[in-house]
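Figure S7 source data.
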Amino acid sequence: MADSSLPSPYATGLRGRCPRCGKGHLFQGFLTLRPRCEVCGLDYAFADSADGPAFFIMSIVGVLVVGLALWAEFAYEPPIWLHLVLWSFLAIALSLGLARPTKGVMVALQYFHKAEEGRFER
Ligand SMILES: [Zn+2]
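Tokens for the predicted zinc ion complex:
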């Protein structure tokens, strides 16, 4: 069961903070996790968001950018080079902007719900 004394995994994850104390930092560099929380000492070895953040970002950014491109085409019929420049830039910027908060939230949710790989008990 989730522990109700923990801070909200969304609040800590979006800010890139430790899921247990909400004060220490989760990341060193852009997307690399620290080995442990510098405030409460929580070991981040449990954290493995794998390709989860990439899946959500691809889905959200893909639908958004394709929708905007279609709308712009039907509303303004801009030249093809403008489509290429505009939507490439927007897709890259949104993906980079969402990468850290999305990974932070997924790691925090993993800690909050004590999620881990399935195991057979003996
Ligand atoms: Zn901490």
